[in-house]
Design brief:
single chain; 273 residues; alpha+beta; 4-stranded antiparallel sheet; 8 helices; 12 strands; 28% helix; globular; binds zinc ion
Length: 273
């Protein structure tokens, strides 16, 4: 599933061709939504905003187009008249004079008024948006000090969008590794210095992944490994999806455990409790 950095890059791509434009045509191709396209026709697009793993396209008439890609949804941007080569089914299309923005396979799409947007069950539960340009490190540090989260394990918290929005499975393992924290301790069980390290790492690493195509490894190391001939998937991460391979720092084999059905990867030496 795409995580915050991938969603924000998709939003950037869409924003470049949609923001400020009045689409020639908006097509909503899912049953139950087709008649809602009229609410958006003839309106200018004010902006494209990622919210955690959802994406909002705001129209100047006051409505927003909400989409959550779940596991399979995928956006394409093409020159007008072109169709991407894909076996997926088209759910939503926005055509401007020059481009088409096409969403395939997603099933969670809605046209929302400003009031509906505020009450939306997914959006209103979201915590601090790590990639929102308005979010500061101080906001993230305050969130890790919030008593509400004290009794939860770090592994559970780092996937909870009500804690830090925009994190997913690869960022969870990578943040814990860089912050040198085990996955199975509670937030309340680590000291203030470790909580601050968690906040600082979550903030910095998510932004690095956004700016550097999902690379969470140390950037100098990643560049060196790439120069040595390693593929993207091999140099991209510290520990994620590297089970059995040596930790880049200490060479201890990376381990994997499943927590609530999703894998956490860690170095048992660097992240000892
Ligand atoms: Zn290690």
């Amino acid at each position: 599933m795409p995580e915050g950095p991938e969603i924000r890059r998709a939003a950037d791509r869409l924003g470049r061709v949609l923001t400020g434009k009045t689409p020639e045509k908006v097509e909503l191709l899912m049953p139950g939504l087709i008649q809602h396209a009229a609410k958006l026709s003839g309106q200018r697009i004010m902006g494209v905003q990622p919210r955690s793993k959802a994406l909002l396209i705001h129209f100047d008439g006051g409505h927003s187009l909400y989409s959550h890609n779940q596991l399979y949804g995928r956006w394409y941007v093409v020159r007008i008249g072109k169709t991407p080569r894909t076996g997926r089914s088209l759910r939503l299309a926005i055509h401007t004079r020059d481009h088409s923005a096409l969403l395939y396979s997603a099933s969670d799409i809605a046209v929302l008024s400003a009031e509906q947007l505020e009450r939306h069950p997914y959006l209103c539960k979201l915590g601090i948006e790590l990639l929102d340009p308005e979010t500061t490190l101080a906001d993230v540090r305050a969130q890790v000090e919030d008593e509400r989260f004290r009794r939860r394990s770090l592994a559970a918290l780092l996937l909870d969008q009500a804690f830090l929005a925009g994190l997913g499975n690869y960022l969870r393992s990578e943040i814990l590794y860089v912050a040198t924290l085990p996955h199975d301790v509670t937030l309340g069980a680590i000291d203030a210095e470790a909580r601050q390290r968690l906040a600082d790492t979550a903030f910095a690493l998510t932004r690095q992944a956004y700016r550097h195509r999902g690379v969470t490894n140390d950037l100098e190391r990643a560049a060196r490994l790439k120069a040595e001939g390693l593929r993207y998937g091999q140099y991209r991460h510290h520990v994620f999806a590297r089970e059995g391979l040596g930790c880049w720092t200490c060479e201890t084999p990376v381990e994997r455990v499943d927590v609530s059905g999703r894998a956490v990867f860690f170095c048992p030496h660097c992240q000892a409790s």
